[in-house]
């Protein structure tokens, strides 16, 4: 529970993360939905998914 003190929000942060479904739940509804990736693969530069290859020859604009 949050104690109402604005200079100590650690308890509030923990409660909010739990209320929103934990870190995994937050990422599933924000990061994954916003990037259209279903998993962590492809979200980082070090590990490419196949998205780059599939988009290589696709016409992206009408120019």
TrEMBL record:
It holds the Pfam family U6-snRNA_bdg. GO terms for biological process: spliceosomal tri-snRNP complex assembly. GO terms for molecular function: pre-mRNA intronic binding; U1 snRNA binding; U2 snRNA binding; U5 snRNA binding; U6 snRNA binding. It comes from the Eukaryota. Residues 1-63 form the Pre-mRNA-processing-splicing factor 8 U6-snRNA-binding domain. InterPro entries: PRP8 (IPR027652), Prp8_U6-snRNA-bd (IPR019580). One of its GO terms (cellular component) is U5 snRNP. This is Pre-mRNA-processing-splicing factor 8 U6-snRNA-binding domain-containing protein. It comes from Rotaria magnacalcarata. The lineage of its organism: Eukaryota, Metazoa, Spiralia, Gnathifera, Rotifera.
């Amino acid at each position: 529970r949050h104690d109402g003190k604005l200079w100590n929000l650690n308890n509030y942060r923990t409660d909010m993360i739990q209320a929103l479904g934990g870190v995994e739940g937050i990422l599933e509804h924000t990061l994954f939905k916003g990037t259209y990736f279903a998993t962590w693969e492809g979200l980082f530069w070090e590990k490419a998914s196949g998205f780059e290859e599939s988009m290589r020859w696709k016409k992206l604009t009408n120019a």
